[in-house]
């Protein structure tokens, strides 16, 4: 299968930002608690009777390469930017990716980790066995998913009465002057452990929406990850807990070019519109860079919730 990222896997892998250690420690604490899930789960997801077909996944889940306690499905895994740090935490990980180009890089990136199995599948049809996972992660991906079909698939592959859903987005400051917007909407500084507030639910997501939506100049054209996070948090979650983690990125001209080439809407170098795209990318760098470095006050956003399925 080819997606809008086909032909962009190398650029994506080279230049897309990773995730800070503090965010990964927080996510690890959420996943580790899957064996001790709270009983007061309030969200219902549609059930499904479809049956997964990935024999290799069945073998991987039942073998010693995956923890018997917790198995995580990383859906829309891309090139493994989130899958690899997740694997380093020691969990059994099933990485699901539909694009052949991205999946090839993903396989190479996860080869050193026997606790990772890579499979060809979509968010709506993962091909994983029934009742096989405990937690589901989506990094930079949830906005691509069909809401009803995805939650039905989550219900099918969840092996408990509920599953933990975690959505992660790197929200670049170029999206919409996000840092200034968040500072106005949430006066507290962002700490390394992500604790702006004890818990931020969907109402809080709406509270910061206006601030996050403020754009400046070319910012609205560069990316929409802040909007993706806000909208998917409202669509896929009912009472999410939200954390924010500083994740500043420093770009040289070349790494900035590669980063911009990695987006789904960016033309490929062989496309006729690519020269104009490159000129636009360079103009942004020239306008924003200081001493040859463009600094992005990127923030890693994490939304999580336990969702009941049975």
UniProtKB/TrEMBL annotation:
<dbReference type="GO" id="GO:0032259">
    <property type="term" value="P:methylation"/>
</dbReference>
<feature type="domain" description="Methyltransferase type 11">
    <location>
        <begin position="74"/>
        <end position="165"/>
    </location>
</feature>
<dbReference type="InterPro" id="IPR029063">
    <property type="entry name" value="SAM-dependent_MTases_sf"/>
</dbReference>
<dbReference type="GO" id="GO:0008757">
    <property type="term" value="F:S-adenosylmethionine-dependent methyltransferase activity"/>
</dbReference>
<dbReference type="InterPro" id="IPR013216">
    <property type="entry name" value="Methyltransf_11"/>
</dbReference>
<comment type="similarity">
    <text>Belongs to the methyltransferase superfamily.</text>
</comment>
<keyword id="KW-0808">Transferase</keyword>
<dbReference type="InterPro" id="IPR051052">
    <property type="entry name" value="Diverse_substrate_MTase"/>
</dbReference>
<keyword id="KW-0489">Methyltransferase</keyword>
<dbReference type="Pfam" id="PF08241">
    <property type="entry name" value="Methyltransf_11"/>
</dbReference>
<protein>
    <submittedName>
        <fullName>Methyltransferase domain-containing protein</fullName>
    </submittedName>
</protein>
């Amino acid at each position: 299968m080819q997606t809008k990222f086909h032909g962009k896997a190398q650029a994506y892998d080279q230049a897309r930002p990773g995730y800070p250690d503090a965010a990964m420690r927080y996510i690890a604490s959420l996943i580790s608690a899957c064996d001790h899930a709270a009983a007061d789960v309030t969200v219902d997801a549609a059930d499904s009777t479809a049956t997964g077909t990935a024999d290799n996944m069945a073998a991987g889940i039942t073998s010693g390469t995956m923890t018997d306690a917790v198995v995580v499905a990383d859906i829309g895994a891309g090139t493994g930017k989130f899958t690899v740090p997740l694997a380093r935490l020691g969990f059994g990980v099933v990485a699901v990716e539909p694009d052949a180009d991205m999946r090839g890089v993903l396989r190479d990136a996860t080869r050193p980790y026997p606790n990772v199995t890579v499979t060809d599948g979509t968010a709506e049809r993962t091909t994983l066995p029934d009742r096989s996972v405990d937690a589901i992660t989506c990094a930079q991906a949830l906005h691509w998913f069909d809401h009803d079909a995805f939650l039905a698939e989550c219900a099918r592959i969840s092996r408990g009465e509920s599953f933990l859903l975690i959505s992660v987005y790197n929200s670049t400051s170029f999206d919409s002057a996000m840092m200034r917007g968040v500072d106005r909407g949430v006066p507290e500084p962002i700490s390394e452990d992500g604790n702006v507030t004890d818990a931020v639910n969907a109402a809080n997501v709406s509270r910061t929406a206006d601030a996050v939506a403020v754009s400046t100049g070319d910012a609205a054209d560069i990316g929409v990850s802040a909007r993706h996070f806000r909208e998917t948090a409202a669509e896929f979650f009912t009472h999410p807990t939200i954390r924010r983690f500083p994740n500043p990125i420093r770009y040289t001209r070349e790494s900035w070019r590669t980063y911009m080439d990695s987006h789904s809407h960016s033309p490929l170098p062989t496309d006729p519109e690519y020269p104009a795209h490159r000129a636009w990318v360079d103009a942004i760098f020239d306008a924003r860079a200081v001493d040859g470095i463009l600094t992005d006050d990127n923030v890693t956003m994490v939304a999580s919730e336990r969702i009941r399925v049975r």
